[in-house]
Design a protein that fits this description.
The chain starts with 9 loop residues before the first helix and ends in a 6-residue tail after the last strand. The chain is α+β, with helices and mostly antiparallel strands. It has 3 helices and 8 strands. The radius of gyration is 17 Å and the shape is elongated. The strands form 2 sheets. It has a 5-stranded mixed beta barrel.
């Protein structure tokens, strides 16, 4: 895919990778002639993973890059009924397997906690910053 056809969500540009990470990824690229991480886009050309590889491609003037199509989903959930809603990202194994009302375990500011899912959405520009990841769906939610 042409690198200039890849669209970048603001959450990526507003939170650039740390210089140490970019240096490590650059060293890998120089040593192997390929990117360490895949560039993953959604069906409309939005980058959903592989931002460091995208940045290196731009830096080195690579006009075409291999991409993989994928999906990302987020949940909006609360720690208690009627509580404040927060957003987490679902790991690939849980995409399309979590529904409203499910209890899932997440990393929170206070450690690992169970939350109740209020909404499940496709990943998009709604994420103002990088998201924390859901750990797993509670076994009691078996479908």
């Amino acid at each position: 895919m042409r690198i200039d056809n890849i669209k970048i969500f603001p959450c990526f540009t507003e939170h650039p990778p740390k210089p140490e990470k970019m240096e490590r990824k650059d060293q890998y690229y120089q040593a192997h002639g390929s990117f360490e991480s895949e560039i993953i886009i959604d069906g409309t050309g939005n980058l959903i993973d592989g931002y460091t590889s995208y940045l290196l491609a731009v830096w080195y003037g690579v006009s075409h890059v291999p991409v993989r199509y994928g999906r990302r989903q987020t949940i909006t959930a609360a720690h208690r009924p009627g509580g404040k809603l927060y957003v987490w990202e679902l790991p690939g194994i849980l995409i399309d397997r979590v529904k409203i009302g499910d209890r899932v375990l997440v990393h929170s500011g206070k450690g690992v906690k169970a939350v109740t899912v209020a909404a499940v959405e496709e990943y998009g520009q709604q994420a103002p910053e990088p998201l924390r990841m859901v750990i797993r769906r509670n076994k009691r939610n078996s479908a």
